[in-house]
């Protein structure tokens, strides 16, 4: 019984590490995609700062885009939305091929 509990905890720990790495990868890809369209992008702690006008905070979804300039916020929000949708679509396809293949 103890061995199974320990194994379950180890598996959960490994799964959390994998999720953390995958999440970090997603955030870096988002940063790169924004930087391809807008030059003035920087990490500000865990936030992504765009043009000193817009901040994207974790978990880096469109609703986490904030700023004072509505036009800039909407532009960045569209980039984030497309990026998030592309990321989840590609992961669903990869999972589908792993299961089917």
Any overview of this molecule?
Mean pLDDT is 79; it is low at 9-13 and 95-99. The protein is globular, with a radius of gyration of 17 Å. The protein is built from two helices and four strands. Strand 1 (41-44) and strand 2 (47-50) form a beta hairpin. The chain is α+β, with helices and mostly antiparallel strands. The chain has one domain (24-100). It has a four-stranded antiparallel beta sheet with strand order 1-2-3-4, with helices on one face. The longest helix has 36 residues, at 2-37.
Q: What share of residues is helical?
A: 55-70%
How many beta strands in the DSSP annotation? 4
Oligomer: single chain
What is the helix/strand order? Answer: HEEEEH
Largest sheet: 4 strands, antiparallel
The neighbouring-strand order within the major sheet is: 1-2-3-4
Q: Helix count, per DSSP? A: 2
Strand content: 5-15%
The radius of gyration over CA amounts to 17 Å
Shape: globular
| Secondary-structure-derived class | alpha+beta
Tally of domains? 1
Mean pLDDT figure: 79
The stretches of 5 or more residues where confidence is low (pLDDT under 50) are: 9-13, 95-99
Distance from first to last alpha carbon: 35 Å
């Amino acid at each position: 019984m103890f061995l199974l509990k320990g194994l379950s905890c180890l598996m959960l720990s490994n799964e959390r590490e994998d999720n953390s790495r995958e999440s970090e990868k997603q955030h870096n890809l988002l940063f790169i995609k924004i930087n391809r369209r807008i030059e003035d992008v920087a990490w500000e702690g865990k936030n992504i700062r765009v043009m000193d006008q817009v901040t994207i905070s974790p978990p880096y979804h469109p609703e986490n885009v904030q700023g004072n300039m509505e036009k800039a916020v909407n532009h960045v929000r569209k980039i984030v939305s497309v990026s998030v949708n592309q990321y989840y679509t590609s992961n669903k396809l990869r999972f589908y091929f792993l299961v089917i293949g």
